[in-house]
Design a protein that fits this description.
This protein is of the alpha/beta class and about 400 residues long. About 40% of the residues lie in helices and about 20% in strands.
């Protein structure tokens, strides 16, 4: 693959470290408090716990993740977050400058949850442009929603992920030069200074935007990589990939996206309501979802989902939506299963709205993170403690 992604050498991820808050909230208890049916979160969203940075700072989690990789010889740090409380000063200075005492300048990205994938691509480009110099990608986020939107509150989460990017990577070679992309000005999700840290969410519109942007980015990838597809046996990216990871606001939404991808590849000629129509008129999404549910019921789709997408959803149900980290939480799960030489598809999404689709190849097998151990050692929050944390977030803003 090296000749496809670079004329010089392959580049990608050699090390990856992750840190999640030690405290978690039982969503079974929260549904009772918010008077929601338990099936809404377990079956409708596919989530069970939310990691909450109770008595912890997100930047401390970032430092914990960084300390799990080699970073002391690195001169370029790419930061991705949408938890930045300052409209001027980047959050990165709190992590690598204040907490770690480094004098390196953080290069910070902001495109909602997509920022992490943007930072990954830039880090790969930096390494190639500088004769293989290593770089670090650091994604850190926590999500929090107002009590007036309890359905979104059930998707809260938090994490930090650090990755060492370099030439001839040990874990994953990233085909950063061949991407599919799509962006449009869509107000599906916003965090105005007046409401920080609580976002303003258009629920129906964000579902259409999430699915539509990723589909359009996939189509762009295929248009731009016809010659590459021929080397993969003339298949599409979804068919050629052994695994596929996506940004995961909640696991069921990733399943919807997988159904969109599968239908795009296998039922191209079947007429149906289009995502572009849903973006123009969000009220149409409920009708669109009916056809999507029909696709999800097909045995052929279920087999595709079980083999290629579900492995990446191992940890997300016990962490929640960690925004820029979410896709990398899924990546960690896949890296623990993937074999050397297997193909990986990645599709990132950020509200506002945009998506990036790219391809990667495993360069090792047998990788193990400490994420399972972190989750098993979690301490359960009471609802009273959780409410105390929420109040502290309001006061801090």
């Amino acid at each position: 693959m090296a000749e496809e992604s670079s004329d010089i050498f392959s580049v990608g991820i050699s090390q990856i470290g992750v840190a999640v808050p030690r405290h978690f909230l039982s969503l079974e208890e929260l549904t009772k408090a918010r008077e929601l049916p338990l099936a809404y979160v377990t079956d409708g969203l596919g989530v069970f716990q939310a990691r909450i940075p109770y008595q912890e700072e997100v930047e401390d989690l970032a430092v914990d993740a960084l300390k799990k990789i080699d970073y002391k010889d690195v001169e370029r740090f790419f930061i991705a977050t949408e938890s930045d409380p300052d409209l001027s000063k980047p959050f990165g200075v709190k992590c690598i400058n204040k907490k770690l005492g480094l004098a390196k300048l953080p290069f910070q990205y902001k495109f909602a949850c997509l920022g992490g994938v943007e930072a990954l691509i830039s880090a790969c480009e930096y390494s190639v442009a500088n004769k293989g110099k290593p770089a670090v990608v650091l994604a850190l986020d926590r999500s929090i929603y107002p009590e007036t939107n309890p359905t979104a509150e059930m998707t809260q989460g938090c994490a930090a992920v650090a990755m060492r990017i370099e030439a001839n990577p040990n874990l994953l070679e990233v085909d950063y030069g061949n991407i599919g992309q799509y962006a449009a000005d869509v107000n599906d999700f916003r965090v105005p200074a007046s409401s920080f840290p609580f976002p303003q969410v258009n629920g129906e519109l964000t579902k259409s935007a999430y699915l539509g942007c990723q589909k359009f980015a996939l189509e762009d990838w295929e248009r731009n990589n016809q010659n590459l597809l021929k080397t993969l046996g003339g298949k599409t990216l979804v068919q050629a990939a052994d695994f596929f990871v996506m940004h995961t606001p909640f696991p069921k939404m990733t399943e919807w996206a997988a159904a969109v991808f599968w239908r795009h590849e296998n039922l191209k000629e079947r007429p149906h309501l289009r995502l572009g129509q849903c973006l123009e008129n969000p009220g149409l999404f409920k009708e669109y979802k009916k056809d999507l549910d029909r696709v999800r019921s097909l045995p052929e789709f279920q087999d595709f989902f079980r083999k290629k997408v579900r492995p990446g959803l191992k940890y997300n149900p016990y962490i929640g939506n960690s925004y820029t980290c979410s896709i990398f939480i899924s990546l960690i799960a896949v890296l623990e299963e993937i074999k050397k030489g297997q193909q990986l598809g990645m599709s990132g999404y950020g509200s506002g709205a945009g998506a990036i689709c790219l391809r990667a190849v495993s360069r090792s097998e047998g990788f193990k993170s400490d994420l399972k151990e972190q989750l098993e050692k979690g301490e359960k929050l009471s609802l009273e403690e959780y409410q105390k944390w929420r109040n502290s977030q309001k006061a801090a803003s």
